[in-house]
Amino acid sequence: MSVESTTAPSPAPDLDRQTMEVDIACAGFGPAMGGFLTTLTRAWSENPADPAFESKAAPGMPLQVLCYERADDIAAGVSGVVTRAQGIRASFPGLNPAEIPMAVEVTHERVLYLLDPIGASRRSLTLRAADRVLRALGPLLGARDHAFELPWTPAFLQKHGGLVLSIGQFNQWVGSQLMATGLVQIWPGTPVSAPIFPDAAGKDGPAEKTVLGLRLADQGVDRFGTPADGFMPGMDVRAHLTVVGDGPVGAVSQSIDQTLGLPQGHAHREWALGMKMVIELPEDSPLQPGAVWHTFGYPEPEIFGFLYVHPQRLASVGIFVPSWMSDPSRTAYRYLQHYIQHPALWRYLKDGILRSWGAKSLEESGKRGEPFLAGDGYARIGESSGSTNMLTGSGVDEAWTTGTQLAEAVVELLRAGKPFTRENLAATYETRRRASWVERGAREAQNARNGFHGGIVKGMIGMALAGLTRGHISFQAHIPPAPKQIRPMSSRSAARLKLKNGAVLALENGRPLHDALLTARGWPEIAFDGRLLVTQQDALLMGGKVQAMPGFADHVVFRDRRLCIACEEKTCIAMCSGQAITEGADGVPAFEREKCVYCGACLWNCAQSSGGDRSNIDFLAGAGGLHSAEN
Amino acid sequence: MANAVHIVVCAGIVPDPLQTLEPITGPNGPGLKNEMVLPAVLDPWAASALYEAANLAAKNPGSKVWLVSLGPKAKLQQVMMTAAQKVPFELVPIDGPIGGFPDAHSTAAVLAESIAALPGLDRDRLLLFGGWESATRGAGVTLQLVGERLGITDQFYGVDQIDLRDDGSFEVLERVEGGKHQVSVCAGTPAVLGWATGNLAEPRNNPQTGMANMRTIMPALQKARPATLAPNGLRYVSVSLPKQQRTTRVVKDLTPDEIAAELVEWIGAE
C-alpha cells in the first residue's frame, strides 16, 4: 500500500543485516521470563561445568542466553498486583517479602459493591431496582459511604496468604539476581520487531511452525520506517530456541499468531485495559499494608476496581475497562479519577499524592486465546500464551509458572542432548503445563466470564456459578471479534442523538468527544488539585514519566485510512491511555509516539476491520514508554 | 595525524532523575526516600563525557577508554546493561557507596587511587573526563579533586568540545556567561575535562557493542574491589528540595515563539 492509503511503515529495505548466533533468544522480560531464566540459571549453577550448558552456537563458550526487553528499564513494567504467589513461592521457598521493595503479604481482603453517589453511571433497570432496595436496607446491611461489603470473599477470588507486589520492583528484584549470576544477559531498551521465519514463510501458504530467531527493531528511521540520520538496521539474532514472553500485545507474539495461526476455534477476543495510580496515602491513613479490596459497580457496572496497600503508605488503586463494555466512547483515565473519588475510597485517598501511574492491556481470553505453545525452535510463555486466569483475576503467578515449566523442559532437553523441536517441546514443556495447576485453573476459568456478554447481572451470576462449581456450570456465549463488540455510534435513539449533539457542541472547546460525552451524561468535572487529581498529560509526566528515544518508526499504524475516515466511533481515541492518539485533521487519527505508554489498548479498541479478528490498527514494536519503577 | 590518547571517564550512577525523588534524614544522615526502589542510570553529565570520549577515541586510533565507576556492584551491573550498549569502553568498577551526600573528598580519594593503579595507563597521554557536575548533588567538586590528587593542573569545566591537533595540543570550548564559549588552547595532555552536554546525540542502543563490552564488563564486576569512604566529620545541617510549581496547558496551534513568550511571562510573574 502507498503511504497515502495507510500509515504503515515502508517495507524494510533489502539489507545486509548483522547477524548473531545464540543458543536461546528471549523476547520480553516480565514475570514469565523471570520464571524461565531463574529456573534455568538455578539448574545451571548446580554445576556450571555441566557440558549440557556448553554453547552450540559459540563452541567453547558457555550457553549464550540473551533476553531483549523493549522498555527502557526492566523496572518499567505495570500491573496490579495481588497474587497467591503459589508458583513464585515455589521458586523462592524462604521468600521474605521485605526483600522486595513495595511487597507485603496479604493480610485482609474485602469485596465491595459500589453504588453510584452521583447518578451518572448507566445502569440497567434491574440494577437500578436492586440499588434502590440496597439503599433502603442500607443501615440494616451495614452499608457505608455508598458501598456494601460482601460478608465473605468468594473462594475463587481469595488471595489469602499471597502477596501484594509492584511488578516493576518485582521484575527489578528478579532481574538483578539473574544478572548477578553472570549466566544470562538482559538487554533493556532493545525492542524486537519480529520473529525470523524460514525464507519460505508466506510464499506457498502458512509456514511450518518454525521460528529461527528474533529481528531487533531498526533504529535511525523516520516515523514511516524510512532510513534517516544514523540508520542502524536491526540485528538478526538467530537462536536454537526462541522464547516468546513479550506480553499480550507483544510484536513477536502477534506476528507468530498472524503468520502461523491459532488452534481451531481459538481467538484473542477478550481484553481489558487496566489503569492504575500509585498513591502516597496521607500521613494519618488507617489503611494497613497488605489490605486488598476488590470492587465492582462503579463508576460503571462493567468496570471492576481494586485497591492494594503496599508498605510505607503506598497504595495501588486502579480499574479495568473491558472489551465487553460496548459503549464506543468508553475510556479509562477520567473513569479512574471518578473511581478514586467514590466516597468509600476517597475517605482514605483524599489528600494523597500521585506517585506513579500506568496502564496495560490484559489478554482475558484465557484458554480460548491460547496459541500453539511450541513449534520448531520456539515456545510461548506468559500472558501471550493464554495463561491469565480471569476467574481468579490473576496472571503474574501463572505467567511465572509457565516460565518455570519451560525452563525445566529446556534443561531436560539440554541434558539429553535433544534439539528444540515441536515434538520434543510438546513432550516436555506442554506436558508439564497440561498437568499443572495453571492448566486446571485455566479450564475452570474458560467460560467464567461468558455471561458478561449478556449484561452485568448475568455476568456476575455466571462468574459465581463457574467459581462455585469450579467451571462445571457456566453460561455459553458467542464472543464476537473485538471490533464487533463496540456498539456503533450512529443511533436512531432521539435521546442518544441529543446527547451526542450536546457533546459535539462541547467539542468546540477542544475537548475530546468521549470526555465531552461523559460530562453531558452528568459526570462532574474533575477539580484538579495538582497533587492527586491531575490532567491526563500531567499523569503521563508526573506519574508515568513517559519518554521515547528518537529514531524509531511509529509503532501504532492505521492500516486502511479509508476505514478511519469513515469511522464514527473512533474508540481508539477514547481509550488511548496516554492521549497519544487524537483527532487528525483529515479524519485519520494522529499518533504521537512520545506519549505512548505501550498499553496496546488501541489494538482492540478499533471498531473497524477488513475482516476476521484483526482490527484496522496494528500495534508494532518500539522503544520508550512508561519509565516509572513504582507500578 | 591522529594522536592516541588514554581517556579515563569518571562516572557515577544516580537514581533515575525521572523518578519521584524526595530527601529524607535517616539514622545515617540524609538520603533519598525509598532509594532501594529507584532504578539507577549513568550520571547524565558523565554519560555525555563518555560519549565524547568514545568519539575522540574513534578518531584517534590507538586510543583507549576506561569508565571508572564507584557504586554498589548490583546497581552498577544493572546500569551497565544500558550503558554498555552505547559505546565501547573498559569498565573499572569499585564496589562502594554512592549518592548525593557522601563527601566529595573521600570519593575523590578512592577514584584517584583506582585510576593511578590502572594497568597500562600512560599518564602522559591521559585525558580525565567526567561531568562538570553530577546529577546527585551538582556541587561540581569531585572531578576537580580527582585531578588534583593525580597532579593534573590543566582543568577545564563546562566543556562542549575538544579538538586534538596533530602536535598533541588541543583546543577546548568551555561554557561561560551569556550563552558563549571560551576558547582555550592547551599545550597537551594530561588534562581534566568536566563536560557539559557536548555536541553529540545520545548513541543508539547497539546490541553488538553491548555484547562486546560485556566480555570485559562481567569479569570486571565479579572482581570489583570493595571500597569504603573515609569519614571526615561531614555533617549536613539541613536538606530540602527546591520549590516547585507546575501548571500544564495542552496546545496544538501555537508557534514556538508564542509558547516561549508565554513561558517568559509566566516565569516573570512567578
| Strand percent estimate of chain A | 15-25%
CATH class of chain B: Alpha Beta
Classify the fold: give the CATH topology of the largest domain in chain A: FAD/NAD(P)-binding domain
Number of strands of chain A: 24
Key descriptive features of the protein:
heterodimer, A: about 625 residues, alpha+beta, FAD/NAD(P)-binding domain, D-Amino Acid Oxidase, Chain A, domain 2, 4 domains, 8-stranded mixed β-sheet, 7-stranded mixed β-sheet, 24 strands, B: alpha/beta, Rossmann fold, 9-stranded mixed β-sheet
How does this structure look, described?
- The complex is a heterodimer of chains A (631) and B (270).
- Chain A has 631 residues and is of the alpha+beta class.
- Chain A has 4 domains: 24-93 and 168-267 and 368-441, FAD/NAD(P)-binding domain (3-Layer(bba) Sandwich); 98-158 and 268-366, D-Amino Acid Oxidase, Chain A, domain 2 (2-Layer Sandwich); 450-479, no CATH class; 485-619, Alpha-Beta Plaits (2-Layer Sandwich).
- Chain A is built from 17 helices and 24 strands.
- In chain A, strands 1, 2, 8, 9, 10, 13, 19 and 20 form an 8-stranded mixed β-sheet that branches. In chain A, strands 6-5-15-16-17-14-18 form a 7-stranded mixed β-sheet. Chain A has a 3-stranded antiparallel β-sheet with strand order 3-7-4, with no helix packed on it.
- In chain A, helix 1 runs parallel beside helix 4, helix 1 runs parallel beside helix 8 and helix 12 crosses helix 13.
- The longest helix of chain A has 21 residues, at 396-416.
- Chain A is globular, with a radius of gyration of 24 Å.
- Chain A starts with 18 loop residues before the first strand and ends in a 12-residue tail after the last strand.
- Mean pLDDT of chain A is 92; it is low at 201-207.
- Chain B has 270 residues and is an alpha/beta fold.
- Helix content of chain B is 29%, strand content 25%.
- Chain B has 6 helices and 13 strands.
- In chain B, the strands form 3 sheets. Chain B has a 9-stranded mixed β-sheet with strand order 11-10-9-12-8-1-6-7-13, with helices on both faces. Chain B has a two-stranded antiparallel ribbon with strand order 2-5. A two-stranded antiparallel ribbon of chain B has the order 3-4.
- In chain B, helix 2 (73-83) links the parallel strand 6 and strand 7 (90-95).
- In chain B, helix 2 packs antiparallel against helix 5 and helix 3 packs across helix 4.
- The interface between A and B is large, with 50 and 31 residues.
